[in-house]
Automatic annotation (TrEMBL):
Organism the protein comes from: Sistotremastrum niveocremeum HHB9708
Catalyzed chemical reaction(s): Random endo-hydrolysis of N-acetyl-beta-D-glucosaminide (1->4)-beta-linkages in chitin and chitodextrins
Origin organism lineage: Eukaryota, Fungi, Dikarya, Basidiomycota, Agaricomycotina
Keywords of this entry: Carbohydrate metabolism, Chitin degradation, Glycosidase, Hydrolase, Polysaccharide degradation
InterPro entries, A to Z: Chitinase_II/V-like_cat (IPR011583), Chitinase_insertion_sf (IPR029070), GH (IPR017853), Glyco_hydro18_cat (IPR001223), Glyco_hydro_18_chit_AS (IPR001579), Glycosyl_Hydrlase_18 (IPR050314)
Gene3D superfamilies named in the record: Glycosidases (3.20.20.80)
A Pfam family annotated for this UniProt entry: Glyco_hydro_18
Protein name: Glycoside hydrolase
GO molecular function, one term: endochitinase activity
Region (Disordered): 420-453
SUPFAM superfamilies: (Trans)glycosidases (SSF51445), Chitinase insertion domain (SSF54556)
Residues of the GH18 domain: 35-423
């Protein structure tokens, strides 16, 4: 009896790897929750007008637990949720295929270009009721398993013409409670795609307490991408794993700082899914600025804002946005686009003639074509594996990739699935090891040298001890306790 009493709580607090590849220990409750391997499916890329087309049958359904169809949009027409005609047809097929493959089918509402009326939809009791009824009608019509609320952003301006109210965050929470209180809403999977900072409070600053959302959302997906781009002063990582090791002026967001902020504000780690990017941002950088005197690739160089690169064939080539404001070309390259445009080889490795550097701080790849003078910040398989390790070591719920069609031959997807344990239970690494790897580091603003410093995960543990260090050591400790207790049972 004594051994059973000792063993049960220890097992409940063990690291994810000891609970199976798709379960995560809930340390507070002693139970487990299903790990998430998710992606967003952009319906517009299934159109025959796109080149290349990425349709429903191109999805590797068996590699996901959940797929989110993007997007339904908010409207000011009685807080109605709208779908394009093509989406309405495709959504039926989407749900059918998802369920055929035992995958959860959810619908994203909003997005960068579809959040104009979110504030209106939750701004009054009447509107909240209409908004909830519109969503539940969609759920019934298409047999959806849930919704992903992609409001960009509560209490803050997004694209430029969104309705914004200081009470947006409070009203959003009130709406979610109302939706959850309905018989159908109680059983739906509800998530929110969020910024790297917690929802804004009434003053526009990040809220210090968003714990109420933890009781009504199954999880949040931190959109840890678009951190650097054409709007920043220098080239930088699109989706940095860590920025606490970067120069102060380049610390504008990362997975480490975002998870720290959201957990400090009241969202448990096991209710956080890390958003990962299958695309990169490009910049026009002169040879003089891109390359050091030794010929190595520099980090955080200045770029020519007046000459944005074209990006790949999926990239927005510029024009008026939803607000009627003229926008330049986006300059994005999907992972397959980097292959198609000669930056990478078919297996994801750097193509001959390209300059490349891997930034150990942000765990980001930078590739540069000295002839076209285009530099792209992107995530390779190595970067995705590092994010998978981070997910496991911090006890996060899983990952969600924007977007499904951006990958090439599942190179990125397979990497993060393997790192997070979805491809089987590989216990080859000693669970009690606390050793940190040491690799050559490319210091921000300099070339990569042979200097040796701790890995970004080790740097995160020292720079963000309130989250990363405590969780990683806790999981290691719990794993060791389990092993020691099992050993003692054999003796008893």
């Amino acid at each position: 009896m004594l051994s059973s009493l000792l063993l049960f709580p220890a097992l409940a607090l063990a690291s994810p790897s000891y609970l199976g590849s798709r379960e995560l220990a809930s340390r507070a409750m002693g139970d487990s929750v299903e790990m998430v391997a998710s992606t967003w499916f952009a319906g517009w890329h299934a159109s025959t007008q796109d080149n290349p087309v990425f349709g429903l049958n191109d999805l590797s359904w068996e590699k996901y637990t959940s797929v989110v169809y993007s997007f339904a949009i908010t409207t000011d027409d009685d807080a109605h949720v709208a779908l394009e005609d093509s989406d309405a047809t495709l959504l039926t097929q989407f749900v059918s295929l998802a369920h055929k493959n035992s995958v959860e089918a959810r619908l994203a509402v909003g997005g960068w270009g579809g959040s104009q009326s979110y504030s209106y939809a939750v701004g009054s009791a009447a509107n909240r009721t209409a908004f909830a009824n519109s969503l539940l009608a969609l759920q019934s019509k298409y047999n959806l398993d849930g919704f992903d609320f992609d409001w960009e952003y509560p209490g803050l301006q997004g694209i430029g013409c969104n309705v914004v109210n200081p009470d947006d965050t409070a009203n959003f929470l009130t709406f979610l409670k109302q939706l959850r209180a309905t018989p159908k809403g109680a059983n739906l999977t509800l998530s929110a795609a969020v910024s790297v900072k917690p929802f804004a409070d009434g003053t526009g600053s990040p809220s210090t307490d968003v714990s109420g959302f933890a009781s009504v959302l199954d999880f949040i997906e931190i959109m840890n991408y678009d951190v650097f781009g054409s709007w920043t002063d220098t080239v930088g990582p699109n989706a940095p794993l860590n920025d606490t090791c970067a120069p102060a002026h380049d610390q504008i967001g990362s997975a480490v700082s975002a998870v720290n902020a959201w957990t400090a504000a009241g969202i448990p780690a096991h209710q956080i899914v890390l958003g990962v990017a299958s695309y990169g941002h490009s910049f026009t950088v002169s040879n003089q600025n891109a390359l050091t005197s030794s010929g190595a690739l520099a980090l955080y160089p200045p770029f020519d804002k007046s000459n944005p690169p074209p990006g790949d064939s999926w990239n927005n080539q510029g024009g008026p946005d939803q607000c009627g404001v003229q926008q330049p070309a986006g300059g994005e390259y999907e992972f397959w686009g980097l292959v198609q445009n000669g930056f990478l080889q078919a297996n994801g490795s750097v193509a001959p003639g390209m300059d490349h550097i891997f930034d150990e701080c942000s765990q980001t790849d930078f590739v540069y074509n000295p002839k076209s003078q285009i530099m792209v910040a992107y995530d390779s398989a190595q970067a995705f594996a590092a994010k998978g390790d981070f997910i496991v070591n911090t006890g996060l719920r899983g990952f969600s990739m924007w977007e499904a069609g951006g990958d090439s031959k599942d190179i990125l997807l397979d990497s993060i699935r393997s790192a997070t344990g979805f491809d089987g239970d590989d216990e080859s690494e000693p669970p009690c090891s606390t050793e940190t790897s040491k690799t050559p580091v490319a210091e921000p603003g300099s070339l990569a040298t042979g200097s040796s410093t701790p890995s970004p995960l080790a740097l995160a543990s020292s720079a963000a001890p309130s989250l990363y260090h405590s969780l990683s050591l806790s999981y290691t400790g719990f794993s060791c306790i389990v092993i020691l207790l099992l050993s003692s049972l054999c003796i008893l």
